[in-house]
Design brief:
Shape: globular
Strand order of the largest sheet: 3-2-1-4-5-6
Strand content: 5-15%
Oligomer: single chain
CATH topology of the largest domain: Rossmann fold
Number of domains: 2
CATH superfamily of the largest domain: Nicotinate-nucleotide-dimethylbenzimidazole phosphoribosyltransferase (CobT), large domain
Number of helices: 15
Helix content: 40-55%
Number of strands: 6
Length: 356
C-alpha cells in the first residue's frame, strides 16, 4: 500500500500546468487567419486549449485511442437499472467483436477501441482484451463500501499504467469510454460525495428507468452516502466507498494522460465522475480534459460546471461507451486543420480588419 501511494504521489507530481505560451501563440495565429476575429467560436477555443496541452499551436493527432473500462456494480442488487448485470459481460464481447456503437463511431473517426476488464463479475478471454481486473465487481454500496481503499488505488494506478503504455505505443489523444450496468448510480454517488450536490439533483434515469424506479435510485444513492459517509476531501475514500472500478480506472487514465501531456476527451456522465475524482487528486489534470458533449443524464451539465469545462456538442446522447467522445474527434481534427491549412491575410493577399 505504501508503494502504491508513493506511485500515486509520483504520478500526480508529474502533472504540469498547460503551456500558456503555446496558447498565446495559438491565439495570435487565429488572429491573422482569413476570418473575422472569433468567428469560428468554440473551434477557436478548442484550438487554443489543444495548443496548451500539446505545446504547439498546430497540433496533429495521428493515433487516437478510445479506452473502454468495463466493470460490474454490486448496487445492481437494489434494482436500480432497466438491464440485468450480466449485460456487462455480454456487451464486453460485443465491444471486442467491433459491434458496439462506439466501435462504429471510432472507425469513422479513425480511432481504435481498447476494452479493459478492470472489474467484470465473470471470466472474459479475448486476444484484444486488456486484462486489469482488480476484483469481480464491487460490493453493494448501499450496505457498505463498494471496495477497499487499496482496491480503489489499484484501479487508479491500473488506468494510469494503461495510459502510459498506450502513449509509449504511439497514442496521441485519448477518449474515455466505459461499460458497466449500474454505473450511473455509482457515478451519481461520486458526484454527490465530491461536490455536495443532493441526490435529487445528481441522480438521473441511466438506462431509461421509469419515475418509480428513479425515486428508488435516488433513495439508494442517499442510503449509500449515509451508510458510508465518504470524505469529500479524500477522493480515494469517495471512490472506494461509493465508486466503481471503471470510474477509478478512468480517473487513473486521465491522470496518466495528463502526466504525459496528452489530451483526454471526456465522454458523458460516468467519464465526468472520473474526471471529478482525477481533478480532486491533481487539480492541474483538468487542463488536459476536453468535454465532448452534454449528456442526456440529469446532472451532467452541473458536473461540467464543477469541472470548469464547456461541452462542444449537445445531441441528447446518453449511451456512454465513449460515443460522444468519438464524435468529438471530428471537431478536434477540424480545429487542427484550421490552424495548419487556413491561409493568413498576408499569405492570401487579403486585407485584414481595420481597427476602429
Amino acid at each position: 500500500m505504501n508503494a502504491e501511494l508513493s506511485a500515486l504521489k509520483d504520478l500526480t507530481g508529474r502533472i504540469a500546468p498547460v503551456d500558456e505560451q503555446a496558447m498565446q501563440r495559438a491565439e495570435q495565429r487565429l488572429g491573422i487567419l482569413t476570418k473575422p476575429p472569433g468567428s469560428l467560436g468554440r473551434l477557436e477555443a478548442l484550438a487554443v486549449r489543444l495548443a496548451g496541452i500539446s505545446s504547439t499551436e498546430q497540433p496533429l493527432y495521428g493515433k487516437r485511442t478510445v479506452v473502454v473500462m468495463a466493470a460490474d456494480h454490486g448496487v445492481c442488487s437494489e434494482g436500480i437499472s432497466a438491464f440485468p448485470q450480466e449485460v456487462t459481460l455480454q456487451m464486453a464481447y460485443n465491444f471486442l467483436d467491433g459491434g458496439a456503437a462506439v466501435n462504429v463511431l471510432a472507425r469513422q473517426a479513425q480511432a481504435e477501441v481498447k476494452l479493459v476488464d478492470i472489474g467484470i463479475d465473470g471470466e472474459l478471454s479475448h486476444p484484444e482484451l486488456i486484462a486489469a481486473k482488480v476484483r469481480y465487481g464491487t460490493a453493494n454500496m448501499a450496505e457498505g463500501p463498494a471496495m477497499s481503499r487499496e482496491e480503489a488505488l489499484q484501479a487508479v494506478l491500473a488506468g494510469a499504467r494503461i495510459a502510459r503504455e498506450a502513449v509509449a505505443g504511439g497514442t496521441e489523444i485519448f477518449i474515455t469510454g466505459e461499460m458497466g450496468i449500474g454505473n450511473t448510480t455509482a457515478s451519481a454517488a461520486v458526484f454527490c460525495a465530491l461536490t455536495g450536490v443532493p441526490p435529487q439533483t445528481g441522480v438521473g434515469r441511466g438506462t431509461g428507468i421509469d419515475d418509480g424506479r428513479l425515486r428508488h435510485k435516488i433513495e439508494v444513492v442517499q442510503r449509500a452516502l449515509d451508510v458510508n459517509s465518504p470524505d469529500c476531501a479524500d477522493p480515494l475514500d469517495v471512490l472506494s466507498k461509493v465508486g466503481g472500478l471503471e470510474i477509478a480506472g478512468l480517473a487513473g487514465l486521465i491522470l496518466g494522460a495528463a502526466a504525459e501531456r496528452v489530451p483526454v476527451i471526456l465522454d458523458g456522465f460516468i467519464s465526468g465522475a472520473a474526471a471529478l475524482a482525477a481533478k480532486a487528486l491533481a487539480p492541474e489534470a483538468a487542463g488536459y480534459m476536453i468535454a465532448s458533449h452534454i449528456s442526456g443524464e440529469q446532472g451532467h451539465r452541473l458536473m461540467l460546471e464543477h469541472l470548469g469545462l464547456e461541452a462542444l456538442l449537445d445531441l441528447g446522447l446518453r449511451l456512454g461507451e465513449g460515443t460522444g467522445g468519438a464524435l468529438c474527434l471530428h471537431l478536434v481534427e477540424a480545429s487542427g486543420r484550421i490552424m495548419r491549412e487556413m491561409a493568413t491575410f498576408e499569405s492570401a493577399g487579403v486585407s485584414g480588419a481595420e481597427s476602429v
